[in-house]
Protein: Peptidase A1 domain-containing protein
Organism: Lithocarpus litseifolius
Amino acid sequence: MASGVIFHPCFLLSYYLIGLLVTAHNVPQAQLIPYHGQHLMKASIGTPPVDIYGVADTGSNLVWTQCVPCDDCFNQTYPKFDPQKSCTYSEISCHSEKCHEWDPVHCSAQNSCNYVSGYITGGSQGVLAKEKATITSTSGQAVTFDIAFGCSYNSNLHYDGHETGIIGLGSGPLSFVSQIGSKRFSYCLLPFGTESTDPNITSKISFGNGSEVVGDGVVSTPFIDRESGHEYFVTLEGISVGDTYVPFNSSGTVSKGNMLIDSGSPALSLPPDFYDRVEVEVKKQISLDPIKNDTLLGTRLCYRTEITNENGPILTVHFEGADVELKPIQTFNRPIKRFEYYCFGITNIASTYNEFSDGTGVYGNYVQANFLIGYDLETRIISFKPTDCTKL
């Protein structure tokens, strides 16, 4: 270093991170951590980097994390991001094009771009800002991107621990996928409750070239745009319970895009009539008496004996052009750990907080477990490959 030349620590950190991005010829990849029915994607933001654990959510399009000061926020285990301690943080001007890639936003008196993001069980409000976001890669090296994200000062979602926010993985302009320039990504989710049996097991989400889902056993279905335009809607034609086919509609006709693939929602939620017909057939094929008149369980279909491949049916989900086979480990779970209750993980959408009123269902993360699932934004297909996600 030349005598008398002083390099700012922020410059050195930024130079170091950019160097890794340029020289790392590998697949960007992040850790997925199962937690209370969600899957948290580990990343870091800022300079120096601060770890965040956002819910990996294909059903939304904004990256945000709770920030200091947080006026009205959910409790989180990890420290909140403090923008004043990052030398690469900058707020986005309300007059910039980037600000208006999100709706709704409004200008503050200081010309900040204030965002509002709503979800089924709550929402987040704060300021849109620019920052460095860092994840790992297949070589173990860090890879850094410039992204716009929400610095949240008001969050009322029902989170209570390891979550720090949400990492939107939709196809909108401010989603993580779009902002890092990725045309494809894939992930493998661990079965519900894995963290209770082995808290050290994690899985992966990969981005860009090298994240394709290929090989034996892969099936694919197209996704379409709907009015929102930035989520992944596929067409579900019916479900087979064992060898018995149950159509989505009694009439046999279905609307295109009648099912949202949503990694941020736990259950597979079906319209009431379809759910009732599937549940009737499931009961027929399990030679056990379901639990009745339990106020804790309500109307849920539950048993006192664990449902396994030996005593429970295989369900085949018939998407357009793709049959996805679900074993009992994906369709039954133990929702209350202190009780030996084993409950059907598919739900009636009328009993959830789901926002759809037109008969659209939600393909949640319970039934996505133990599949390598790939999203290709160029060919507009979603692929499924049966995989033991605990061994990736």
